[in-house]
Amino acid sequence: QSLPQQKLLTWLSVLECVEVFAEMGTARVWGEMGRWTIIVLIQLAKAILRLLLLLWYKAGIQMSPPIVPLNREQQQPLHPQDTEDNSSGKDQTFVGRRSSRVVRSLQSTPSLQSRHWGSPQQREESQSRRAEEMNQPPTPLGLQETIAESLYITRPLLHLLSLGVWGQRSWKPWLLSAVLDISSLSLLSDLKDLNRRERAELRRRTVLLLYYLLRSPFYDRYSEGRILLLLRLLADYVPGVGFVTRPLMDYLPAWQKIYFYNWG
């Protein structure tokens, strides 16, 4: 990736990290008008950055989060003793004569904090496989797939626009958003030879369709009573589950009112 593309990904990641805090802080300081203003500005900035990545840098299917979190276990440096053993030419492994099993030698055993329980070959294979997956170029998108990804990127803006036109209690913004999400996934489903990260992203988007059960007005009219009844039954009749379901019942109304938790 080029340096400008990396900067775009960094800014996009920062926006996704602070969007909930910005919404709640602005609502506390400037009220509902300030809250919706910051929501529109953040969604507009995210859409512009994503469209630049899609159309200018040909970044393909956009991942969430934009920058893959660092796996510290995979990124652990070699133990100093391992480096000394490599430099001195000592064998790090021992191969059993009859079993042919590979075992780490005692001289090359790392400290407990950096120890892993697989063989050195397994760790090297997993690291090389992960590096290969990270370095895979994005799958080129045709016209149909580019339109589908553009629909997914612009869906938040169209949803906000429809909220401003028809109001928060109308079914039209909910239906419009659902149609755009399903259309985008349907158009992208024809794309073949996706890499592992892109397939995982499409699966994530498919699972997120369940959020429509928690989004107003469907949640207010149909889901709320059934979900709370189910959580209450689990809390009352399943031992130990109440420690999770009762706080969840108290948290759901607050979670449902925050736009970036629910629609972002």
From TrEMBL:
Keyword Acetylation attached: no
Biased composition (Polar residues): 106-116
Top-level taxon of origin: Eukaryota
Major subcellular site: membrane
Segments of this protein annotated with the region Disordered: 74-140
Family listed: Belongs to the peroxin-16 family.
Protein name per its UniProtKB record: Peroxisomal membrane protein PEX16
Organism: Mionectes macconnelli (McConnell's flycatcher)
Lineage: Eukaryota, Metazoa, Chordata, Craniata, Vertebrata
